[in-house]
Each structure stands twice: as structure tokens, then as C-alpha cells.
Amino acid sequence: MLIKGGNANLTVTEVLKDIYAVKKPFAVLYKKKNITRPFEDQTSLEFFSKKSDCSLFLFGSHNKKRPNNLIIGRMFDYHVLDMIELGIEKFVSLKDVKNSKCPEGTKPMLIFAGDMFDVNEEYRRLKSLLIDFFRGPSVPNIRLAGLECVLHFTAVDGKIYMRSYKVLLKKSGCKIPRIELEEMGPSLDLVMRRTHLASDDLYKLSLKQPKALKVCTLESMLLPDLSVNQSKSLSINYCISDQSLLLFRPNEISGATALLG
Question: What positions does the domain Brix occupy (predicted)?
């Protein structure tokens, strides 16, 4: 979800619109101004998180002390887990770059450059936040023609540079095409400001996946029964309960029947 603060200026508003364009249709943009200060009071963010059922947010604001301000963060159980404040030093919008754009809903490839993303804890959390924010839904398969968008993040000299490219597949005279990158916007030069990071224990707890969400496979539900027959050879029999069969997908039932038969 993308939220505009009560005193957001034109630059911040355009940034939120461009990020929303990159994220569509997997994002919600609140166009009305919301007077709140996430680092002092997080109740408004938690309200919007429950309202839109979103665990990731980008909040934009502007004031004299912190001009052109962005706060990127994520929720755990509808409570703020991590927040990192970024200042916008330079911005080039989508409309300022006249090249062709990627179709709506394109899943981007994410590239991170810079040692700070590996050696500094705040930058490591920022990298994790950016991955969660931009990666989109999980997909079982990827086709080459669908790899159209690249988001490149570089951390150097205390700044974070975000660049967006469209992948062009050119003829190369062989089976593998030649790859070219064409800048398409948006482009951001950012500097890190304040941070609100969860403790290590809470962060590890948020990464745990509930058992109910884990996919049950046929192999995991089969219980082996080892026995030795009269010819002294080892045989293995698999037993499966009727209750376990209810957890399988319809196309797995035939395989289970074959094994049981």
C-alpha cells in the first residue's frame, strides 16, 4: 500500500504514482492526504494494513526538516515490524523517459550492487524490504519473453541508487538472443535517514511459516512399514490413512490409488 502524508509535495506525489505504476495491479494507492507520523504513531499504518490486508507499505511526506521523504516498511500480524526512512535527492519520473514501458503486472528481476548490502545490518534489512516490496507473486514457471523488467539498486558512498530498465531481446545469429537494457524510469537517488528495525528474535519469528500453509505431498504422507519375508529379503510397505487422502489434489488421488492397489 502506498500512502501520501498530510504535507506531501509534488515530487513525493509523483514518486508514489510511479512506484504504484511499477507495482500495479498488486498495490493500493491512497490518494487522499493522511496526517500521520509513522515514527511517532503507527496506529494509522496499522489501520490501513488491516483495511487493505497489506503487509508492505510506502509512506511519502515532506517538511523543512526532512524534505522529500519516503518511509518503506512491513508489518507482522498487522503491527509494524521494520521501517526505513529514505530521502529523495534526485528523481526522474516515468513520463520524463520517452522509451517504451513494460506491460502492467510484469514481474521484475532485482539486482543489488554494493558491499553495504552484505556487511551493514541496516542495509541488509533495506535489501530484504526492497525484495519483499518489488518481487511480486510467486510463480511456478518463467518464460524468457516474460523477463522484461530489471530493477537495479546500488549502494555506494552512503547513497542508494534505484534504476529501472526494460530488457530488449535482439537477434544474435544464434539460438540465444543478445540482451540489451534500455532505461525506462522511474529513477531515484536516495539517502538513508532514520530506521526502526525489529529485534533479531522478533525478526526470526516473523520468518516462520505456519504448518497449515505447507503443501502436503504424497511422499510426505506415506508411512513406511519395513518387514523381512521368508526369503530373507527386505520389503517396504507404505500405509496411508483415509484422512490424508482428503488433503491431496484431485490429480494426485489416481497416483495414490495406484500405490495402494
Answer: 1-201
